[in-house]
Amino acid sequence: MRIDIITVVPDILKSPFEASILKRAIEKELVEVHIHNLRDFSLGNYNQVDDYQFGGGAGMVLMIEPIDKCIQKLRLEREYDEIIYLSPDGKTLNQKMANSLSLLKNIILLCGHYKGVDQRVRDTLITREISIGDYVLSGGELGAAVLCDAIIRLLPGVLNDETSALTDTFQDNLLAPPVYTRPREYKGLAVPEVLLGGNFKAIEDWREEQAFTRTQKLRPDLLE
Predict the structure, then answer these.
(1) Are 70 and 36 in contact (CB under 8 A)?
(2) Where is the domain boundary, 92, 122, 152?
(3) Rounded to an integer, what distance in angstroms lies between the CA atom of residue 105 and that of residue 178?
(4) Residue 133 is part of a domain; what is its CATH number?
(5) Phi, psi (5° rounding) for residue 139?
(6) Distance CA 23, CA 25 (A)
(7) Are residues 135 and 49 in the same domain?
(8) Which of 28, 108, 123, 144 is most buried (CB neighbours < 10 A)?
């Protein structure tokens, strides 16, 4: 898989891909992540990528021309399955969406900034808009990092135990069951006996019951 990220502040995106699972995935060549500075496609001598909005109002708007130039350059090099705009009014990211995106080959992520992007970008260049929640950030970079993490960890070979992702919260519209590790008892708090007996059928039944009970209590909307 290849992910191209277009941004006006590339430094924000460096650290997530220089540590932990994402770094290992890149080093193992399971994914390519390329960060493109929109200012490399800017206008004039001042590296302009934004301007005042027509009709007045507070906040600058990212211009269509630099974005179009960047996307067209990338398109000349390969075909893209999706061109995604990270936006607070996009469809909210969920596990089902992450599963679907992880099956794609090439995607572009466009990070909004300031007041957003010229609407013509969204009308003519973007194939999907995604939000990571009902709140506003100063730019789409953190949202892009979250989306990349959600996708990349699902790629075969990224996790040491590939079955781990299949039992994550939300995979079956259920929250994950409780998990425990050593010590068996701490300050009078004991690990449930069923997890210690070696009866794997009983353990799986317990986990399924716990997952349903936790979902019913904490996120009943997932069961609707």
Answers:
(1) yes
(2) 152
(3) 34
(4) 3.40.1280.10
(5) -170, 170
(6) 5
(7) yes
(8) 144
Name the nearest CA neighbour of 21 among 130, 140, 143, 157.
Answer: 157
Residue 163 has what pLDDT?
60
Q: How far apart are CA 136 and CA 126, in angstroms?
A: 20
CA distance 31 to 21: 11
Q: What percent of the chain is modeled with pLDDT above 90?
A: 89
Q: What pTM was computed for the model? A: 0.90
Instruction: Supply the pLDDT for residue 10.
Output: 96
Does the residue 159 lie in any domain?
Answer: no
Alpha carbons 39 and 45: distance in angstroms, whole number = 11
H-helix segments, the chain: 20-27, 64-77, 95-101, 119-124, 141-152, 163-166, 200-218
Same domain for 100 and 137, yes or no, is: yes
Q: Is the domain of 60 the same as that of 140?
A: yes
Strand, coil or helix: 3: strand
Q: Which two tokens stand for residue 113?
A: 């900034």
Is there a contact between 8 and 117 (Cβ–Cβ < 8 Å)? Answer: no
**DSSP category for residue 160:** S
Backbone CA torsion sign across 53, 57, 62, 68: negative
